[in-house]
């Protein structure tokens, strides 16, 4: 009888490959930098593939974005993939490629350490999961941030020197292009500039002018939509009479690079006869006086003593999502979508809501006699005005409620004096439009 041979079973451990990614970045979109970015991506592909115990997850790359910014799209996507356990280790060229901001760098590294994700900086030869990794990174990142500050200050110095010599560094003015350091008139847009000033000085308002530009398909500077706010800025722009006022805005700091309006914190530089004018000074200053006159009249008729309104910043258009603005129409205050108001129902067919109707609705909902001393922010995060004549109330506690409202007829609120005033105003507007048309002809 043959004997059975017993073979002892052995468990063969499976080889788990480390999930490795790489991050690279260039701070400008110049061709040379894009070429460098491409070379870095190729390098990491080969480098990771050369390790048999590694598996390539992805090469994450951002181009034309500064390392001082924490909103880099592919960087953020990489961090999210780490949170989703898709990455065990990240390779990057140096600390400055990863982030120049010390706070952002350390915050990110500590989060990755908690996720057990290692980051290897090749230039500094540091692994973040090593014992002395965070200490060395803190030290080196401080130097990197100081370097970024010095680079920023050097750039600002060059810009200031250019301003002192009356040399513009950029040209975003509609109607001009920057050629060989000088503003040159761009004829197709210059004609639009002249038309805007003529229409405004003839008595038309910003909204009416904006609608005319939209209907005539007037070209925009960067392919966007015409807005009344942009028309207003153009009417205020001294560049159209050959003057330059440099450093109207500046960056608040070298990390966020947030652009803020210069209200006297920095010197401004005025350059006269800097370039060829598109309009004459008489036309320009007539528009400035007309703006002052309209602003004074509007302040007397429409604005509250505090300069703000109960629903300011809280009303949202249910069609396009823009914040509603207050408008006085024939002595009746309404809240209206700026998209509809400025460029027409073709772009947003929302309905306006009268302020008295909305106030009555909110007072009833909150059980109040009036809203004079009420801060709407204490009750609602937002109030959405929908086209089906419903108001969506979004309470601060997270609850929501929809309420129907009805439009009042004009006969309920219009006095005889109001009707007469509206009729006279309509006639005057028609007269001004005709005069403007004939003048353009």
> Strands of the biggest beta sheet: in what spatial order?
2-1-3-4-5
CATH fold descriptor of the largest domain = Hect, E3 ligase catalytic domain fold
Q: DSSP helix count?
A: 12
By helix and strand content, what is the structural category?
A: alpha/beta
Chain oligomer state = single chain
* Main pleated-sheet profile: 5 strands, mixed
Average pLDDT works out at 76
Question: What amount of the residues lies in strands?
Answer: 15-25%
Give the second-level CATH assignment, the architecture of the largest domain: Alpha-Beta Complex
- Classified by CATH, the class of the largest domain is Alpha Beta
Task: Write down the domain tally.
Answer: 3
String of helices and strands: EHEHEHHEEHEEHHHEEEEHEEEHEHEEEH
Please describe the structure with a list of short key phrases separated by commas or semicolons.
441 residues, alpha/beta, Rossmann fold, 3 domains, 5-stranded mixed sheet, 4-stranded mixed sheet, 12 helices
Structure description:
The chain has helices spanning 31-49, 73-83, 95-98, 102-114, 133-164, 187-201, 206-215, 228-236, 281-301, 338-343, 355-366, 416-440; strands at residues 18-26, 54-63, 89-92, 118-121, 126-127, 176-179, 182-185, 244-246, 249-251, 259-261, 269-271, 315-317, 325-329, 332-336, 353-354, 380-385, 390-395, 400-404. Helix content is 40%, strand content 18%. The strands form six sheets. It has a five-stranded mixed β-sheet, with helices on both faces. Helix 7 packs across helix 8 (228-236). The protein has three domains: 18-152, Rossmann fold (3-Layer(aba) Sandwich), CATH 3.40.50; 166-301, Putative Large Serine Recombinase, Chain B, Domain 2 (Hect, E3 ligase catalytic domain fold), CATH 3.90.1750.20; 315-408, no CATH class. The protein has twelve helices and 18 strands.
């Amino acid at each position: 009888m043959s004997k059975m041979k017993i073979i002892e079973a052995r468990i063969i451990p499976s080889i788990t490959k480390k999930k490795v990614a790489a991050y690279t970045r260039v701070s400008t979109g110049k061709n040379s930098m894009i070429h460098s970015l491409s070379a870095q991506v190729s390098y990491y592909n080969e480098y990771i593939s050369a390790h048999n115990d590694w598996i390539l997850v992805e090469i994450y790359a951002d181009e034309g974005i500064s390392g001082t910014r924490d909103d880099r799209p592919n960087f953020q996507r990489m961090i999210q993939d780490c949170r989703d356990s898709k990455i065990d280790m990240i390779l990057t060229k140096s600390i400055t490629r990863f982030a120049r901001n010390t706070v952002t760098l350390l915050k990110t590294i500590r989060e990755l350490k908690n996720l057990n994700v290692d980051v290897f900086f090749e230039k500094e030869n540091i692994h973040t999961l090593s014992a002395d990794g965070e200490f060395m990174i803190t030290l080196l990142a401080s130097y990197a941030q100081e370097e970024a500050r010095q680079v920023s200050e050097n750039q600002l110095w060059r810009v200031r020197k250019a301003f002192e010599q009356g040399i513009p560094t950029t040209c975003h003015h509609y109607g001009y292009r920057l050629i060989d350091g000088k503003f040159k008139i761009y004829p197709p847009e210059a004609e639009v500039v002249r038309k805007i000033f003529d229409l405004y000085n003839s008595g038309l308002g910003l909204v009416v002018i904006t609608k005319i530009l939209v209907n005539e398909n007037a070209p925009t500077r960067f392919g966007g939509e015409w807005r009344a706010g942009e028309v207003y800025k153009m009417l205020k722009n001294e560049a159209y009479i050959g003057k330059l006022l440099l450093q109207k805005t500046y960056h608040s700091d070298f990390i966020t690079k947030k652009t803020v309006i210069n209200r006297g914190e920095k010197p401004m530089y005025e350059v006269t006869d800097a370039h060829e004018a598109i309009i004459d000074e008489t036309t320009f200053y007539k528009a400035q006086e007309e703006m002052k006159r309209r602003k004074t009249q509007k302040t007397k008729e429409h604005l509250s003593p505090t300069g703000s309104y109960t629903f300011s910043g809280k009303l949202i258009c249910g069609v396009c999502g823009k914040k509603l603005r207050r408008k006085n129409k024939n002595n009746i205050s309404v809240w209206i979508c700026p998209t509809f108001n400025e460029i027409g129902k073709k772009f947003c067919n929302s309905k306006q809501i009268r302020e008295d109707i909305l106030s009555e609705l909110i007072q009833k909902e909150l059980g109040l006699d009036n809203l004079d001393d009420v801060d709407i922010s204490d009750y609602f995060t937002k109030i959405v005005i929908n086209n089906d004549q419903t108001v969506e109330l979004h309470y601060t506690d997270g609850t929501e409620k929809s309420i129907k409202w009805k439009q009042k007829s004009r006969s309920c609120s219009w006095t005889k004096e109001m009707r007469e005033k509206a009729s006279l105003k309509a006639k005057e507007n028609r007269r001004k439009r005709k005069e403007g048309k004939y003048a353009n002809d």
